[in-house]
Amino acid sequence: MGTMAGGLAIRVKWQKLSTWLPLLVAALITACSGLVLLKVYALQAERRHEAARAELLSQLSVLRARLEYNLTAPLLISRGLVAQIVYHDGMSDADFRRAASLVIRDYDSIRNLTMSRGTVISSVYPEAPNRAALGVDYRTKPDQWPTVQQAITSRKPVVAGPVNLIQGGAALIGRVPVYLPDPAGGESRLFGLISVVIDMPKVFLASGLDARLLPMELALRGRDGLGRSGEMIWGDEAVFLRSPVEMEVTLPDGTWAMAAIPKGGWAASDGQLRVTAGMGAVLFLLTVLASFGWAFHVRRQQRAVRLVAESEERYRALMETAPMAVVVHRDGVILFANTQATRTVRAPAGETLIGRKVLDFVFPDDRADVAARMGAAMADPETVVGGPVRYVARDGRVVECEVITTRVTLDGEPAVLSVVLDVSQRNQAERERERLLESLQRSNEDLQQFAYIASHDLQEPLRNVAGYVQLLGRRYRGRLDKDADDFIAFAVQGTKRMQEMIANLLDYSLLHREDGEPACVDSRGPLDEALADLGAAMDESGAVVEVVGVMPVVLARRVELARIFLNLIGNAIKYRRADTVPRIRIFARRDGLTWVFSVADNGIGMEPAYLDRIFTLFQRLHSRETYDGTGIGLAICRKLVQHNGGRIWAESEPGQGSTFHFSLQAAD
Q1: I need a surface site. Which of 1, 131, 258, 434 has the fewest CB within 10 A?
Q2: How far, in Å, CA of 664 to CA of 646, rounded?
Q3: In sequence order, what are the residues at sequence separation of 6 or more whose Cβ sits closer than 8 angstroms to the Cβ of residue 665?
Q4: 107/234 same-domain check
Q5: What single-letter DSSP state applies at residue 57?
């Protein structure tokens, strides 16, 4: 047995593996082709990227050369002026202007040449547009003094900028310190500085730096010659963060960092690469369709081969595990019977029912009916017949069953399929339930009859006792001592309370005896009837009753609903505060499938701990000297509400009044 189970498990695992094997092969082919295409694309992209970087590097080299020339050439002319100043041991302002006019005319990008004596500007050429700079002390200009001070201290040329000029505009300023030698051979002394102010827009334009015409996105940084660590000079700083081609622009005393990427970024720089990617995607899609198409075709073939075997296995497994007996028979001979069928007839373990006659197991009185059903099923394939059948088990017990019979085809020939459900326990439970219901109904009727008879039979002797006690009170009042009068009064009051309690108990026991079924009732009608009955009590107490909103239509018994309102409103009037006008609010709200009615008052209220006790028979929270009554009114309300399919509850606080709620089913 264990070997068979192991073999079956291995076969099931192999079937599952063979089902998924074509898909696994297709997935492997797809993955391999995808990896190959990705590798080819990556190599192509790398090659194209390197070619694009090389081309961009070549273009950037040309721009750098132009920019270096247009920046360096104007800066070098200052050295000729320095040489003249040193040679002549100084220079007048007029000589400086003449010399400057000679050298500046060949350079359109030079805005002006400036000479300072010490740190004070003494001469500038051309003078007319730059007159505002004359007499300015560099030390008073925080934006220019650091580079001036650096040039004086280092005794080397310093390139500053771009900076904001005193006379307006922005430019690059080359500052060359001028030191005159000491004739006595001592330390040279500072004469001043020669400053060359270069118009940056003209330099950029002459170098070809026009964002609209450039085939690239270009950015420059390195203010004051600080290279990549300097501030931005031209372009978008984000270019430096997008893997650019970079070069350094060399200045006389520093560098600028130049970065460039193709317009639109590297991804948009190569249309041929996009074509390659599109062709690769198409090829990959064709590979996916071909491989998975083959896989699904193989799976369909495998599934078609497997369906026949699985269908039989599923059918047998379903039949063997079904909680109902399943029997297939032809000409009254059993061809198939599941495990539950052998259990139904209590056959011994290992015994088969195949080959036995069906009617051998049928109770003799039911055999004719079963034979007729079998004949009807065989005559018409569309006929499904069913009904109760009694079977005789192997141990002699009678098994009550429900049987459904129809015609099926087995091995190409018609046969009868019978589905048998053992209902012996269900029928026994149903009979027991009916017996218990009958017993309970008799008990309830006996209890109601007892309560009615007891209450009714107690009335007569109690009336006799009450009559004689009252007669004693009238005849002997004042003739005996005071205690006797009190005792007689107590006896009279006790008999009256007993009569009232017996009457209420009789009323309670007679509830629902002839009440009919709930019907659609407009709750405003029973409410108005209750208010009319309480008219005298309302007039006496001065109670104000307010009905809020529209009263709904509910499923209830009209008389019982009126009595519920009567008891609840009567209690609200009875348990009022002595110093307050009774005010009673009645309203209803929808809660799902029910309506919840509320009767709220401003009376004496009660402790929340007592809210469950007040609906119990004969429960009172106050003495009879304070409030009269027998304590049965709320018990009657609860019984009436429950009889109409609802529930009742209360909310209250001492001195704050009470609100009684009860629910009834909505009519819609």
Answers
A1: 1
A2: 5
A3: 518, 554, 555, 556, 593, 594, 595, 644, 645, 646
A4: yes
A5: H
Examine the domain organization and report whether 432 and 419 are in the same domain: no
Report d(CA 531, CA 549) in Å as an integer. 17
What is the residue type of 663? S
Q: What are the E-state strand segments in 235-354?
A: 245-251, 254-262, 325-330, 333-337
pLDDT of 205 > 80? The answer is yes
Query: Do 103 and 207 sit in the same domain of this protein?
Result: yes
Give pLDDT tens digits for 286-326.
Answer: 888 887 787 777 777 777 767 756 666 666 666 666 677 88
**pTM: predicted TM-score of the whole model, two decimal places:** 0.39
The answer to whether residue 470 sits within a structural domain is: yes
Euclidean distance between CA atoms 459 and 499, whole angstroms: 7
Taking the C-alpha atoms of residue 79 and residue 151, their distance in angstroms, rounded to an integer, is: 14
Backbone angles phi and psi of 117, in degrees to 5: -100, 115
The CATH code of the domain that includes 531 is: 3.30.565.10
Domain extent for 212: 53-262
Assigned domain for 160 exists: yes
Average pLDDT over residues 640-665: 88
In tens, the pLDDT along 99-112 reads 888 888 878 888 88
> Does 302 reside within a domain?
no
Domain final residue pick, 372, 392, 423: 423
How would you classify the pairing of strands 544-547 and 583-591?
Answer: parallel
* 9 confidence band (pLDDT: 50, 70, 90): low
Among 115-124, 520-529, 557-566, 583-592, name the one with the lowest average pLDDT. 557-566
